[in-house]
Write a structure and sequence with these properties.
Length: 147
């Protein structure tokens, strides 16, 4: 499971569809409706938020907005809570950069067109999902670093 801190605009088609599905699964975990993934580290930041379900729904709405821009038909009825229930979650810029580089490695082999489109992005201005606010810091403690 990868719940990207990055803006969904950076993802290729396959990545965006996977993110939608994985986030719906993550929400089921937060709702207590599944037995798996209960202790997945990517869920920690949602669990630690003031309202985990509102946060994950707001995160989903960012994924949905990107899907709409691309003409995809993700079911908006699966998103139920609005921004007024949600406080931004901070994410370290070291994490954002780690994820961006991780995504570039995936895209280089999976979707070279998308890779070419984003590879020269200024690392200081990488955008995040609208739920997150980038702050100074290293890779997050919950990240499983792949070498």
């Amino acid at each position: 499971m990868r719940l990207w801190s990055l803006s969904p605009e950076y993802l290729d088609r396959q990545g965006l569809v996977a993110l939608w599905r994985e986030t719906l699964l993550a929400r089921k975990v937060l709702e207590g409706k599944t037995k798996g993934y209960k202790n997945h580290p990517q869920l920690d930041r949602f669990k630690e938020s003031r309202d985990p379900l509102a946060s994950i729904n707001y995160y989903l709405s960012g994924v949905h907005e990107e899907a709409q821009k691309r003409g995809y038909h993700f079911d908006a009825k699966k998103i139920s809570l609005l921004k007024n229930n949600v406080k931004d979650i901070k994410v370290n810029n070291g994490q954002v950069n780690y994820e961006f580089n991780h995504l570039l490695r995936k895209l280089e082999t999976r979707d070279f067109g998308q890779y070419s489109k984003i590879k020269d992005e200024n690392r200081r201005t990488i955008r995040t999902n609208k739920l997150f606010k980038s702050v100074d810091g290293d890779i997050e403690r919950w990240e499983r670093i792949k070498k």
